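note to self — DONT lose this again. spent like an hour looking for the file last time. sequence + predicted structure for the chain T wanted, 148 res
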Amino acid sequence: MRKVISILLVLCSVFALTSCDAAASIKDGTYRAEYDTYDTYGYKDFVELKFENGTVTEVTMDAVYETDGSLKSESDEYRASMEGISGTYPAKYYQDLINQYIESGDSSGVLVVAGATSTSNSIIKLLMALETEMKAGTYKGTVIVPRD
């Protein structure tokens, strides 16, 4: 419950700081955030945003497997283990999260995808950390976010 409340508070803070002017002031380039460690399944979530003329032109959200560097969205095994139980799978829920981000323009408009709550919260946290540095103009390379 504390985790949910803290995520909501951070979302509210980011939403309050977000504006069209802030997005327009973001320099062209590709921005990335990722976790500092792998999760219990051996994956490390990341997000990448590409900006051109103050607009997001590309969004990538996925996770890299520590053993071989493969992507979670491309794992047939991961899909098979999830789809029948939760009705979703990595390639689908990452695309849902990407669509929400593109439609809303920032992390405050990204909601948890049913069946992928943990990953959704993880991606939202990465987006918030990345947006904070981009908007402040302090981005110096991949933003490394501590895993809780």
